[in-house]
Write the structure tokens for this entry.
Amino acid sequence: MSFDRAAAQYGAARPGYPDALLDAVEELAGR
């Protein structure tokens, strides 16, 4: 299996993060 194929499979199966979590991280980082 090539890296590109493995990366594509990982990207398709990886769960996303809720917007609220990303907003909280940005707030804590001072953005």
Notes: Helices lie at 3-13, 19-28.
